Amino acid sequence: MTHTLSRLALALLLGTAAVASLAEPWPSKPIRFVVPFGPGGANDLVARAVAEATSKQLGQPIIVDNKPGAGSVLGADIVAKAAPDGYTFLTPAAGVVTNAMIRPKMPYKEEHLVPVAMMAVSPSVIVVPADSPIKDLKGLIAASKVGPGLNFSTAGTGSTPHFVAEMLKFKSGAKLQIVPYKSGSEGMVAVIGKQVDATSEASVVVLPQIKGGKLRAVASTWNRRIAALSDLPTAQEQGFANVFIGHWSGVFAPRGTPLEILDKMNRAVDAALKSPELRARLIPQGIDPVGGSREEFVKFIASEKARLGPIAKAADMKED
After folding, report:
1. Residues in the chain where the model's pLDDT stays below 50
2. First vs last Cα of the chain: how many Å apart?
3. Last residue of some domain: 174, 200, 229?
4. In a domain, 203, yes or no
């Protein structure tokens, strides 16, 4: 009897050990970053750079999967409905916050996506043609108040350039006719070609054109100067404290993802963004690495909602 019990105890012990061995620590296989935009844009560039650096921290490959469509809603919906097992994450831009402000129906609820880590900010840069008489933000606003005003291109309703235009209108009294394009790059090209008078676009997009002498920068719209354009004053420095927004990107997970995984991913992204290699890759392109804790990212998301919601409502922004 004693011998039988001993064998049962040994079998139970071995069985427990076998089950424990199956519970491998996260991550034990490749991770997917879903980018809700096509390849080549600012958000895609940041996601790929951060994915590569973060994979070194975690010891597993991070595969970037572009799922563009519906103003980033398609990719966000895929992740919102993905298994919360720590192997699928969303790397969106500000649309993850603003889409719900301008769309009457969403295929997922905001709480279905959990903030994990802030990646980076490409501050918006307000630009005019290189030979424009407008030299600074005060000059742009003054010029807009003459005659019919100025044409200002955007990347569509609810885009970051659209919010910049509305901030200039509501907070500074600028007289702007908004001209929507399909992308920020198209809106920028329209300024170079003088089809419109001005726009605002991510620093990573306009920096080559500014340095190439095709555009003149009149202000950046973040709370500190862009390292790659250190002589360009912010809107705040020029007396327009309410003109504040950036093309930020972050990491989100499906609701229900274990907290220990969220924390580990946050620490990995933060460490990657502090690495000299990644900073040397992003900063010269006008991208500001951010990082920080999950709590800080949650607070940032809440502040963006509180600040941008009234602007969207006042402008009566509706999806295109």
Report:
1. 1-2, 5, 8-22
2. 78
3. 229
4. yes
